[in-house]
Predict the 3D structure of the following.
Amino acid sequence: MDGVTTPAAPEPLEERLADRLGSRLGDRPSGRRATSLLRGLAHYDRAAYRVVAGMSTPLLDEPLRRASRFANHSKPWFLVAAALALLGGPRGRRAALTGVAAIAVTSFAVNQPMKLAGGRRRPDRERLGVPRPRWVRMPMSTSFPSGHSASAAAFAVAVGDVVPPLRRPLRAAAAVVAFSRVYTGVHYPGDVIVGATVGAVLGRMTSTVASRVRRRRR
């Protein structure tokens, strides 16, 4: 409507970082390289998103949509932790506790400082061509990094460190959840890659700390 001023949407994360670097470093070669790299990453990230959006795989739409929704609030990982605690004996209980601790640490790190600092807009999946049968509810939080991917990776790594036979199945399940977030259009690939990387690192750190505490008690 005429006379109504619409607030400007925030710039994408990479663009804002590039602008900040450019203003601080000026016309230095290092500044030009850094800003060029960030804008290049933004370009390829969106290009990869469009490639996934353009996949003609209707048979995957419903399974991946269900996987993405089921992963809300880390439900699959809490169910696995409950099964381990009930049926896995002492090692299963240790794995369950370590996995839940990894989720807690990762969720706080990702959903508080990282998402607040990133401030990246969610993808415009209609404009970018994600088919509507894939859609899940678009989260209200910022896009970078992916909390679902981070929690999944943290749990898979932490539990796999305690119960090695579970490493491959848990990591495969985490990969499905991570891909589903791009497939359903709620995250860019970069959000998922960074989220999974952060989750894996924090999952490993949690399992390492838990192992050291257990050894000291002994």
Observations:
- Confidence is low (pLDDT under 50) at residues 1-11.
- The chain has one domain: 58-217.
- The domain at 58-217 is CATH 1.20.144.10 (Vanadium-containing Chloroperoxidase; domain 1).
